[in-house]
Amino acid sequence: MALIRPHHFRPNPQTAADNAFQSTADHDVSTEAYDVCTRVAEQLREAGVRVHLFEDETHEHPDSVFPNNWFSTHAGGRVAVYPMYAANRRGERRQDVIEMLKTEYRVQEVIDYSGLEPDDLFLEGTGAMVLDHVSRIAYAVRSKRCDPVLVERFCTVFGYEPVVFDAVDTHGVPIYHTNVMMCIGTDIALIGLDAIVGDARRDEIARRIRETGRTLIPLTAAQVAAFAGNALEVRGHGGERILVISETGHRSLTEEQLSVLSESCRILVLDVAPIELAGGSVRCMIAGIHLDPR
């Protein structure tokens, strides 16, 4: 996986308007965020996860800690690069990261959608889409950062079935990224079902998830707000399944929910509180690598 360690992290004023998960920092949290990223990389490596850690020493990209929004990697040697909604996020795209992938892994093709930004078409990677790599389904909440036309285009090229839906928080504000309300693991799925607009659509998505053989764990609105859905299953030593989740999200889960999760994988709790001020958590920080190593 790839992580970006920011030297000048701060909540992004350009994303605050449509990110209801975002908060305002009452002090400079850049040093705390740097230290958090250092610890996350160390803990993941200790668990047996291969981590590529990049530095961002610039001042211009407050959200660079969230690389999963601008690129994703896929079996068969393909990489996607995405168009970003906020203008000051577009510079997060880095050629050195792409070159590392080409050097360390077998990359056959890089498909770059970023040229669609002047047309106001946006699709912020695996923030906008939660991908079921096994059943080949792309779940996507419609938003300013997730254009259904681009979801369809991505799915046609990469071989997924698009499942696009509307979802809102308790105040009726659209969920800005699908991955803050939904996590698909090998045999579990965390999802804020109540956020999905329309009873029929909600039931349909729950049914689709269960049909893939997964145990569905519904999240309350409070748990979604605490980033319980912004988790990610990774592989550690010997292929061990590990669910990485933030302390904030972990604290919000019930004993029953944690018991079900523990039957599926080991839970690795990471303290990323300073990062969560920017409206994203552990899953947002991780750009997964699904490529064969050289």
TrEMBL record:
Keywords: Transferase. The keyword Transferase applies. InterPro entries: Amdntrnsf_FN0238. Pfam families: DDAH_eukar. Coiled coil: none annotated. GO terms for molecular function: transferase activity. NCBIfam families: citrull_CtlX (NF046062). This is Amidinotransferase family protein. It comes from Microbacterium esteraromaticum. The lineage of its organism: Bacteria, Bacillati, Actinomycetota, Actinomycetes, Micrococcales.
